TrEMBL record, chain A:
GO terms for molecular function: NADH dehydrogenase (quinone) (non-electrogenic) activity. Gene3D superfamilies: Cytochrome-c3 Hydrogenase, chain B. It comes from the Bacteria. The lineage of its organism: Bacteria, Bacillati, Bacillota, Bacilli, Bacillales. Its main location: membrane. The keyword Iron does not apply. Belongs to the complex I 49 kDa subunit family. The keyword Transmembrane helix does not apply. It is a peripheral membrane protein. This is NADH-quinone oxidoreductase subunit D. It is found in: Cell membrane. Pfam families: Complex1_49kDa. Residues 120-295 form the NADH-quinone oxidoreductase subunit D domain. Keywords: Cell membrane, Membrane, NAD, Oxidoreductase, Quinone, Translocase, Transport.
Automatic annotation (TrEMBL), chain B:
It comes from Fictibacillus fluitans. The gene is nuoI. This is NADH-quinone oxidoreductase subunit NuoI. It comes from the Bacteria. InterPro entries: 4Fe4S_Fe-S-bd, 4Fe4S_Fe_S_CS, NADH_quinone_OxRdtase_chainI. PANTHER family: NADH DEHYDROGENASE [UBIQUINONE] IRON-SULFUR PROTEIN 8, MITOCHONDRIAL (PTHR10849:SF20), NADH DEHYDROGENASE UBIQUINONE IRON-SULFUR PROTEIN 8, MITOCHONDRIAL (PTHR10849). Keywords: 4Fe-4S, Iron, Iron-sulfur, Metal-binding, Oxidoreductase, Translocase. Belongs to the complex I 23 kDa subunit family. Its EC number is 1.6.5.9. PROSITE patterns: 4FE4S_FER_1, 4FE4S_FER_2. One of its GO terms (molecular function) is NADH dehydrogenase (quinone) (non-electrogenic) activity. Residues 37-66, 79-108 form the 4Fe-4S ferredoxin-type domain. Its cofactor is [4Fe-4S] cluster. Pfam families: Fer4_7 (PF12838).
From TrEMBL, chain C:
Its EC number is 7.1.1.-. This is NADH-quinone oxidoreductase subunit H. InterPro entries: NADH_UbQ_OxRdtase_su1/FPO, NADH_UbQ_OxRdtase_su1_CS. NDH-1 is composed of 14 different subunits. Subunits NuoA, H, J, K, L, M, N constitute the membrane sector of the complex. It is a multi-pass membrane protein. The chain crosses the membrane at residues 12-38, 87-109, 121-141, 161-179, 191-210, 247-265, 271-294, 306-328. The gene is nuoH. It comes from the Bacteria. It is found in: Cell membrane; Membrane. GO terms for molecular function: NADH dehydrogenase (quinone) (non-electrogenic) activity. It comes from Fictibacillus fluitans. Keywords: Cell membrane, Membrane, NAD, Oxidoreductase, Quinone, Translocase, Transmembrane, Transmembrane helix, Ubiquinone.
């Protein structure tokens, strides 16, 4: 008689493909996963609690560290929340700059995802190609904000710096260049049969499941629900641009891949239009009081980050510091479906599925 | 098969392309002017208003001041000024609030040290850190 | 000279000479490994728009691998407490020894060969199978779950791919009518077998990449899944032995492909004035470059797809190849 035994396999927190310090305890039978228990919290820094003792301006640099791949959207969500509470009118130029940096950030974030996802699947080169373009974007953001990842660029009422001379032109020239490179990525990866075999039909979930698990971003759009807050609840200036919300309905890792690649193109469209409409001159910071004290009350705003819906809830008692601050961090919610998806898959698929969700541990753990 | 061939073609065509890497640290990395690096401090400009220490989100600035030695003048002069770079996040807020631009950013980013103690920079060190000072400090 | 040695009766003198020659070959192989690793890193680097190793040994990093090996030599040799000690120590040896043994059968040129086995091809395939045992042993003895999975995967993979590998060369054996590698090369005087049995060549190339555990078939050590697969727990020089095995096999497999399908040391028509050994080296380098190139491009297959591919695609194609080869032989080689 052959006796088989289940085995407990601990993946992470130090593992090349858990994208940081994610840990998952697997019960496996051979290579088949019977049960998966994610363990999170290795990167918990208590951003929300810390914020209760910080002035609103001081919270902004902390948000940079949540989703460190697309910090601009995090900057924006907190500023947007405070501005909504205080009814601050943002100068047009500042708003355009915000849109530009957010969309650049989105492209950069998706590029990192693209590269690391392919690295997970075993192809090494796409990572380096993607980082070449990302480096260019990081360069732009560095030029305008003074940091490569932790921008701390937005302020309540606008942005800290105006665009440096020639910056807008550089961004304009970047768009066609990026399109060309994107075509190269499609040559290298999208048609690759091995890649297709790895992602097609892997990690499938249905529309209903996606909604039940409160998924957002590409993880939701891959099931065919074209829900994008930029389109459906336009904030900032997004109602001024024409762009599509790519949605694919196969609900698997392949749809998520297509979705993100298509989103890069849509972001480029937005960047192109924003550069075109960019006002000649103007203020970049509204007149705001030196000490920011939102009135008593509460507000919740949500925007579309590269990973999904990021929300910010503020309860204010009219003081310099918030009474309570809460971020709806999309990676955290998107991750919840993982244990369900993993049951019955093998270990190679674990990597494909986990990578496809696109988590950033800084955001999951908060 | 076609997809594989396309991919092979793409990598082959990149074989002869120019490298995109930089030869850091052989060639120093030039950061754009706005880059936020280690601060430079001008003791003579500081009026000991404490604003920088108050705004700092990580509480990493410690400063003390003495009364002005010239009894005719009001105000204070700086005595000690320390920034703890173990926790400074180079967020730019201190330089943003300083009314006299006594604390400004430089473009130097090389903070690696062999000991944690060395990350504790004092007034003298910060004063001497005067190359690559950022040209434009206020938006 | 070698031919004389091979035909003369055995004796102590001969043993010593052969030992010396073997040591020479080992040195050459080690030299190759050193520069194959460098070449791999350089070519990958260039493909990925970066310079690759460029600090130790001048602009081209010529001494990088030497430095790496030196580092491995002086590293602490750790053996996990829960490991099966004798097996753990034996595994790298068992993996490496066959890798070097197979080289004995390969003729590098008309005069440069170390043996002239009449069943050279069979010898190669049989001996190289032993490495699987070494790898499985390493995976088991480490007492680490990742290495166990890696070891299992590699055993399954190597066994499945050995079959199409062997069957794909049946065509070649039919053409040459011999298992002797020298005779196989001699048979390719006019036309290389890669043109006569292109199907066999493709199947052989793919299975050989799988046998070598290289991307896209690098599942046993799948960096992103199993961390490093069967050699997770190895460090220092034991680990170096596994690396060495891998690259010596790369050497052997590229040489075998050259011999079987690319015509060995036979020159391309009209360029006969270039010595055979150089032709061999050129063809050989081409194969090595191809393997590196594939590594720079492809993602990794999944374990179940890998098996399916071997049994459902490669094997039938290899069988078909036998049939096609027979027809070709009847029609053109009469
Ligand atoms: S840069 Fe930020 S963290 Fe550093 S000292 Fe200034 S205010 Fe504090
Ligand atoms: S804000 Fe400027 S002037 Fe005031 S204490 Fe700080 S460095 Fe001195």
């Amino acid at each position: 008689m052959i006796r088989t035994e289940e085995m407990l396999l601990n993946v992470g927190p130090q593992h090349p493909s858990t994208h940081g310090v994610f840990r998952i305890v697997l019960k496996i039978d051979g290579e088949t996963i019977i049960e998966a228990n994610p363990v999170i919290g290795y990167l918990h820094r208590g951003t929300e609690k810390l914020a209760e003792n910080l002035q609103y301006t001081q919270i902004i640099p902390y948000t940079d560290r949540m989703d460190y791949l697309a910090a601009m959207t995090n900057n924006y969500v907190i500023c947007h929340a405070v501005e909504t509470m205080m009814n601050i009118e943002i100068p047009e130029r500042a708003d355009y700059l915000r849109v530009l940096v957010m969309e650049l950030g989105r492209v950069a974030s998706h590029l990192v995802w693209f590269g690391t996802y392919l690295l997970d699947i075993g192809a090494m080169s796409p990572f380096l190609y993607a980082f070449r373009e990302r480096e260019a974007i990081i360069g732009f953001l560095n030029e305008i904000s003074g940091a490569r990842l932790t921008f701390n660029y937005m302020r309540i009422g606008g942005v800290k710096w105006d665009a440096p001379e020639g910056w807008i032109e550089k961004v304009r020239d970047f768009v066609p260049y990026m399109r060309e490179q994107l075509a190269g990525y499609h040559d290298l990866v999208t048609g690759n049969e091995i890649f297709l075999n790895r992602v097609k039909g892997v990690g499938y979930y249905s529309k209903e499941e996606a909604l039940d698990y409160s998924l957002s971003g590409a993880n939701l759009r891959c099931t065919g629900i074209a829900w994008d807050l930029r389109k459906d609840e336009p904030y900032s200036l997004y109602d001024r641009f024409t762009f599509n919300v790519p949605a694919f309905d196969s609900g698997d890792a392949w749809a998520r891949y297509q979705c993100r690649m298509a989103e890069i193109e849509e972001s480029l469209k937005i960047i192109e239009q924003a550069v075109e409409q960019f006002p000649e001159s103007g203020e970049v910071l509204a007149k705001v009081p030196k000490i920011i004290k939102p009135p008593k009350g509460e507000a919740f705003v949500r925007i579309e980050s590269p990973r999904g819906e990021i929300g910010c809830y503020i309860a204010s008692e009219g003081k310099k510091e918030p009474y309570r601050l809460k971020f709806r961090r999309p990676s955290f919610y998107n991750l919840q479906i993982l244990p369900k998806l993993l049951v019955g898959e093998n270990i190679s698929n674990l990597i494909t599925i986990l990578g496809g969700i696109d988590i950033v541990l800084g955001e999951v753990d908060g | 098969m076609k997809g594989l061939a396309k991919g092979l073609k793409y990598t082959l065509s990149n074989l002869t392309k120019q490298n995109v890497t930089t030869q850091y640290p052989d060639v120093p990395l030039q950061m754009p002017d706005r880059f936020r690096g280690i601060q430079k401090f001008y003791p003579e400009k500081c009026i000991v208003c404490n604003q920088c220490a108050n705004i700092c989100p990580t509480d990493c600035i410690q400063l003390t001041g003495n009364p002005h030695p010239d009894p005719g003048k009001k105000g204070k002069i700086i005595d000690t000024y320390d920034i703890n770079f173990e926790i400074c996040i180079l967020c730019d807020l201190c330089t943003e609030v300083c009314p006299t631009e006594a604390i400004v950013m430089t473009n130097n980013f090389e903070l690696a040290e062999y000991s944690r103690d060395e990350l504790f920079k004092d007034l003298v060190w910060l004063d001497e850190n005067d190359n690559n000072v950022r040209k434009e400090n206020k938006a | 000279m070698v031919n004389d040695l091979l035909t003369s009766p055995p004796g102590w003198m001969h043993a010593a000479i052969f030992f010396g020659l073997g040591a020479c070959l080992l040195m050459i192989v080690l030299g190759f490994v050193t520069y194959a690793i460098l070449a791999e890193r350089k070519v990958l680097g260039f493909m990925q728009l970066r310079p690759g190793p460029n600090r130790v040994g001048g602009r081209f990093g010529l001494l990088q691998t030497v430095a790496d090996v030196l580092k491995l030599l002086i590293k602490e040799d750790t053996i996990p407490k829960a490991a099966d000690k004798p097996l753990f120590i034996l595994a790298p040896v068992l993996a490496f020894a066959p890798a070097f043994m197979v080289l004995a059968a390969i003729p590098f040129s008309d005069h440069l060969k170390f043996s002239d086995l009449s069943i050279g091809l069979l010898y190669y395939i049989a001996i190289s199978g032993i490495t699987t045992v070494g790898i499985l042993m390493a995976g088991w003895a480490s007492n680490n779950k990742y290495s166990l999975l890696g070891g299992m995967r590699s055993a399954a993979q190597m066994i499945s791919y050995e079959i199409p590998l062997v069957i794909s060369v049946v065509g070649v054996i039919m053409f040459s009518g011999s298992l002797n590698l020298t005779e196989i090369v001699e048979g390719q005087k006019t036309v290389a077998y890669m043109f006569l049995s292109p199907l066999g060549f493709i199947v052989f190339l793919i299975s050989s990449i799988a046998e070598l555990n290289r991307t896209p078939f690098d599942l046993p050590e799948a960096e992103s899944e199993l961390v490093a697969g069967y050699h997770v727990e190895y460090s220092g020089f034991r680990w170096a032995f596994f690396m060495l095995t891998e690259y010596v096999y790369l050497f052997a497999m590229a040489a075998l492909t050259t011999v079987l399908f690319l015509g060995g040391w036979n020159p391309v028509p009209f360029l006969g004035f270039i010595p055979g050994i150089i032709w061999f080296a050129l063809k050989f380098s081409l194969i090595v470059f191809f393997m590196i190139w594939v590594r720079g491009t492809m993602p990794r297959l999944r374990a179940d797809q890998l098996m399916e591919f071997a049994w459902k695609v490669l094997l039938p194609v290899a069988l078909l190849n036998i049939f096609v080869s027979a027809v070709v032989k009847e029609l053109f080689l009469r």
